[in-house]
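seq:
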Amino acid sequence: MPTHTATRSVEEKKRLARRLAGDGRGFAERYGFRVTNNPAQLFQVLYLSVLLARRGDFHRAVDAATALRDAGWDTAARMARSRHEDRVRVLRAAGLRGDLAGLADTLGDLARTLVDTYRGDLRRLRTAARRDPAGERRLLIALPGVDDEVCDLFLREAQALWREAAPVADRRALAAARRLGLGRTADDLAGLAGSGESERLSWLVGALARVDLERRYAEVTA
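struct:
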């Protein structure tokens, strides 16, 4: 599908951006994970991001995150107390493949580190970083299982609340933005969302990521 950057006017880009962000939900909320400044929900968005960064069907990643939450591991403290073999069992039942023992280890290590370092509360990480975006990214990437891609996925959602982190767009959102002629950078998308509209930007980049993952380009441009 050709890129339309050269042919879309600024107003056309803004109209498409408004349509994409129109349901008022980001990626995580679209799949049942609320994004609020609450320790439990921030932790759930973080482990959803860890699972989404793995290669494979993203629906299975969402199903696995849902299964972990439904097993009662909805906070870092509860995940930290869970047994390794139980995490493996839940991940396998959700349809994940690959090194599930390693993934279960990573999730346990992530939860324990959050409990030990931030009392299980990612808001404390934000405070430790003094709400500096570079500091937040540095501290997030220091957590077990969190690399640049996981960090982008988490901040794609969290920027709706942590406004200083904006603009953030993950690689799939940027791939969709390029193909749809909306721009090539997170700054480009922030310009379409509106100055200071980090929540709207989160909705937009989440919608773009879904377009790319679900291959809905024809539907969007129809």
